[in-house]
Amino acid sequence: MSPASPLLAALLRAALPGLRTLDLGPPTLFPWLPDALCGAVADADALPPAEAALLRRFRHPDGRPLVGFDPAADAALLAGAPAAWGDAPERLVRFAATPPPSGLPADALLLLPTDADLPSGPPRARILLLLGAGEAVERHDLLVPPARLDAIHAALRRAAEALAGGAAQGGRWSARALAIADGMASVALLPEEGQTHRPPLSIPAAALIHDAPAPAGRDGLELPGTGRVRLLLGAPPAGRLRAVLRGEGTHRAALFGDGRRLPATVVEHRSGETILEAERWPPGGAGVPVLGVAVPAPAHAVLLRLELLP
After folding, report:
1. 206, 204, 230: which is closest to 307 by C-alpha?
2. Going by C-beta distance under 8 Å and a sequence separation of 6 or more, which residues neighbour residue 104?
3. What percent of the chain has pLDDT over 90?
4. Which carries the bigger pLDDT value, residue 254 or residue 192?
5. In whole angstroms, what is the distance from residue 108 CA to residue 157 CA?
6. With 60 as the cut, is the pLDDT of residue 169 above it?
7. Cα(first)–Cα(last) distance of the chain, in Å?
8. 198 and 310 Cβ atoms separated by less than 8 Å
9. Alpha-carbon distance 92 to 12, whole Å?
10. Is the pLDDT of residue 211 over 60?
């Protein structure tokens, strides 16, 4: 989990309009970039059979499986096919491990671990992103086409300055940009006095990655009375989690983290919504955290949204 992931997502979103992200495993930018495509692993065949069977059930909001479980769709995505990316004007691929696969589109932006080797293929310039995370500083390396280095560096600098200015009322922030050498530059966004950028996050049901038999509709994601719906939330920093429900039997709903029931407070609102709040998320286990939401039969309820709070 990356404490700076909310700040990293905010910086990229502000600097790169129309950005669509492929967030490969375990996800770091999702859910802070809710429309990101996710893949829990680079090689699904290397997973234990039970874990592979669980992850194979999940679907993105548009119905496609997690990246790694559909070779044809994966090939189109990694080759940069416009339809696979929803015709996004800006594409970014984040890898949690190196080396990245070969054959990536020459115009795609790559977000790699610190000091990662450059992938094979066309040359790429490197922008070092230095982000405050409490008392620490995280570094993320953004690889860009050399011809776009100056423009993307300038866009990141402006975005960092705007974020620092907007956060000034909550404390002192520092935003800096340096051109270090040919083919390399840096952008730093550092909250002072140990602050961390952690805004509340509300994710509508229609944007969730889940294993329910049907996609979410206008009224939310239907919860079957005979079992639970499982959802992927990436690896957000630790905080409180709320599931907001509506319908029959919601006062008896339950939350599960990695298969174990989570202590949760149930609050019923006059609006007809029921909120289940778990004090701490993620649950702390290894791998990609899986959230389960269940209501007992014969209840008929829908999940409206999830909220992540500091």
Report:
1. 204
2. 78, 80, 93, 110, 119, 121
3. 50
4. 254
5. 20
6. no
7. 15
8. yes
9. 10
10. yes
Tally of CB atoms within 10 A around 227 = 12
Q: What is the pLDDT of residues 38-63, one digit of tens each?
A: 986 656 777 788 888 888 999 999 99
How far apart, in whole angstroms, are the C-alpha atoms of residue 278 and residue 236? 14
CA distance 158 to 16: 11
Give the type of residue at 196.
T
List the one residue out of 308, 276, 279, 288 whose CA is nearest residue 232.
288
Distances (CA, A) of 42 to 5, 76, 129, 227, 262: 20, 15, 24, 30, 30
Q: Is it the case that residue 170 has pLDDT exceeding 60? A: no
Q: What is the mean pLDDT of residues 88-110?
A: 83
Distance of alpha carbon 126 from its chain centroid, rounded?
22
Beta bridge partners of 8: none
Closest CA to 23 of 109, 129, 125: 109
Helix (H) or strand (E) holding 52: helix 49-55
Residue 193's pLDDT band (boundaries 50, 70, 90)?
Answer: low
Nearest of 172, 177, 173, 174 to residue 149 by alpha carbon: 177
Specify which residues 188 forms β-bridges with.
130, 176
Q: Which single residue is written with the structure tokens 């375990």?
A: 26
Residues 6+ apart with CB under 8 A from 175: 157, 160, 161, 163, 164, 187, 188, 189, 190
DSSP bridge partners of 132 = 137
- Which H helix or E strand runs over 166? helix 149-166
Average pLDDT of the residues in 107-127: 85
Residue 126 in contact with residue 151, Cβ under 8 Å? no
Taken in order 12, 237, 97, 132, is the CA torsion positive or negative?
A: positive
Q: What is the pTM of this model?
A: 0.90
Residue 232: partners with Cβ closer than 8 Å, 6 or more residues away: 27, 30, 38, 40, 58, 66, 209, 210, 288, 289, 290, 291
Q: What pLDDT shows up at residue 195?
A: 66
